[in-house]
Amino acid sequence: MLSPELLYALRNLPLAAKQAAEGFLAGAHASRRHGAGMEFSQYRPYQPGDDLRRLDWRLAARSDRYYLRESEVDTSLTVNLLLDASASMNHRDDNGLSKLDYAKLMLAALAYLAQKQGDAVGLSVLSPRGLQHLPARDDTRQLPRLYYTLEATEATGTFPEATTLAPLIARRQRALTVCVSDLYEADGEINRLLARLRAVSGDVLLLHLAAGNELNFSYKGPITFRDLETGQTLQVDADQQRPAYQQHLQQWLRDTAQQARQQGLDYHLLSTAEPLDGAMREFLRRRQAMG
């Protein structure tokens, strides 16, 4: 797996997504089931109504017969990707990547994987400026739309109000919802949204994104921290505060994971210092469980 720093250094989100996803798939274990999935398994004759994108045109040119490539997953799904674009996502790790940078790479790779599976994939950017929503589609132009939206996204302000996010829960639809957030909230607003999404969509994969320097508290000596959403500052001696910080952080992470799982969310903590394979592995695992 390429490191997130190297993927980001490509300065090309479509290429980075493909490199990350294909690299992951190259090392993935093959499934035992057949369908429109990620690993080629066998051919079967074309039948009226089949998806022409799965037709093997080279074989048709050689044999004058039409066959479809069957592969490892037998169902297509609707996948809705959600990105928290509040200002706390601008926090930067020691590797130079912000949480938002990492989240863009991650969601682009997941979108690539979803389309590779034959899924309809959509994207919602959650920002105080308003909800930016791309409805789920499975056509060939969806990935460029999604990449363009991700590339243009900036993290600003606080997590949007419930009225802004109301369209996300306006109708009940069976889907796999993948939410990427650092879960920085003032009064449980992210938690309430995810609970409602769980009620209307059925399956929510929560990818809790934290920076490596947050998890390890790699700061040293006197330092001033500034809250990216409120602007408040705090001066501390990092070496003195490290033990207490680590203790409080671990307790908060345990409580956060427990609360999410009690609500029926599929919760996973990810670090911006680690490769993207953890997110892709959890996505495919959750997807297979839904099939």
From TrEMBL:
Gene3D superfamilies with a match to the protein in the record? von Willebrand factor, type A domain
Q: Which Pfam families match?
A: DUF58 (PF01882)
Q: Please, which domain of life does this record's source organism belong to? A: Bacteria
- InterPro entries according to UniProt: DUF58, vWFA_dom_sf
Q: Which residues form the DUF58 domain?
A: 42-248
Q: Which PANTHER family match?
A: BLL2464 PROTEIN (PTHR33608), DUF58 DOMAIN-CONTAINING PROTEIN (PTHR33608:SF7)
The identity of this protein, by name, is DUF58 domain-containing protein
Q: Which organism is it from?
A: Hymenobacter ginkgonis
